[in-house]
Amino acid sequence: MTGDDLKDEVLVVTGGSRGIGRATVLAAAARGARVAFCSRDEAGQAEVVEAAVALSASERVLAVRADVSREGDVERLFDAALSAFGEVDAVVSNAGFSREALLVSLTTREWDEVLATNLTGSFLVARRAVRAFVERGRGGRIVFMGSLQQNGAPRGAAAYATSKGGLGGLTRAIAWEYRTRGIRANQVVTGYVDTAMTSHLPETARRLFAERCPQRRLATPEEIASVLLFLASERSRGVNGETVYASGGMMEISL
Fold first, then answer.
1. 3-state SS, one letter per residue, for the chain
2. What are the pLDDT digits (tens) for 147-163?
3. Could you tell me the residue ranges of all domains in the chain?
4. Mean of the per-residue pLDDT values for the chain?
5. Domain 10-246 maps to which CATH number in 3.40.50.1370, 3.40.50.2300, 3.40.50.720, 3.10.110.10?
6. Which residues are catalytic?
7. What is the pLDDT of residue 223?
């Protein structure tokens, strides 16, 4: 989607230094939005800002180093966005990672790390966003990043699948609790996407993933970003509490 549907809107994007998050930040800025994004990767943040300069959108992009699993960092992210841009219209909660291990080998620490970022981090971001939306009295939009693995995965993804599965309940809870406040929450579920999380896989595995997908290829970060930004815009005002599949026709992860 192109145009000025996001012009002068203020977005907060987590996990914005690479992959889908990076594509979302740059696409939003190119469409006239003002974007505060965070990650723990300072080098990646600098690359995003440099890319924004090439788009003549550097004044619309603010990089904040923050770990969404830490409440203080989330507060600092929103404080920076509000200080720079005055308000927040929408949030894309994209930050996440995985620890691959069979259930019996998965340590409690690894389990806690994944859930702290993917699920608790999304809760902290959403809670702060809702407070900002309520304070200004004009509503807002929250978009969570889901995964087909929330429906189960062949092996090694117990923590990741659980963390993503929890986002569906959080999405619907927000949609119901704040439906009369003009606040909407939705979740985007992806399949195999050509990002750093899949780039380390052997070419044979990537080819197999593509063959299992009806569109016969991995999705690009830009394709997913376009769906996220539709839900983050006012064009999607009829959509609330929904799980939107952007998985190329796949409905489950299989090998």
1. CCCCCCCCCEEEEECCCCHHHHHHHHHHHHCCCEEEEEECCHHHHHHHHHHHHHCCCHHHEEEEECCCCCHHHHHHHHHHHHHHHCCCCEEEECCCCCCCECHHHCCHHHHHHHHHHHHHHHHHHHHHHHHHHHHHCCCEEEEEEEEHHHHCCCCCEHHHHHHHHHHHHHHHHHHHHCHHHCEEEEEEEECCECCHHHHCCCHHHHHHHHHHCCCCCCECHHHHHHHHHHHCCHHHCCCCCCEEEECCCCCCCCC
2. 888 877 666 689 999 99
3. 10-246
4. 89
5. 3.40.50.720
6. 160
7. 94
